[in-house]
Design brief:
This protein is mainly α. It folds into 2 domains: 1-67, Winged helix-like DNA-binding domain superfamily/Winged helix DNA-binding domain (Arc Repressor Mutant, subunit A), CATH 1.10.10; 68-101, no CATH class. It is built from 6 helices and no strands. Helix 1 (3-13) crosses helix 2 (19-30), helix 1 (3-13) crosses helix 4 and helix 3 packs across helix 4. The longest helix has 22 residues, at 46-67. It is elongated and about 65 Å long.
């Protein structure tokens, strides 16, 4: 599973995870700890750390599949980037002037 994608989903849906799932996903994806290191820090087994990651990331994927907040955010970001590029090229100013006339 792509750690970058999971960390993106984490930023949207982390409030829906258990504390352990939050901690493990944060440490693995955002701080780049191994499951062995996470297990030692959280005083759990390596298998428990991996299990929390797997269940948590599955939840994140489920929420994205059903709520699409990450997808919608990226679509809006592309639209905003397009508007900004038009403003930089003065295209939008000309379009607005044409609409005004």
């Amino acid at each position: 599973m792509d750690k970058l994608y999971i960390s993106d989903l984490y930023s949207f849906y982390n409030g829906l995870l258990t504390k352990t799932q939050k901690d493990v996903i944060y440490m693995h994806c955002l701080e780049d700890y191994s499951f062995s290191e996470i297990a030692e820090i959280l005083n759990i087994t390596r298998a428990a750390a991996y299990d929390a990651y797997k269940k948590g990331s599955d939840k994140l994927l489920f929420y994205e599949l059903n709520l699409s907040m990450h997808k919608s955010y990226n679509e809006r970001a592309k639209i905003i980037d397009n508007i900004i590029s038009k403003i930089d090229d003065n295209d939008i100013i000309n379009e607005l002037k044409e609409l005004k006339e």
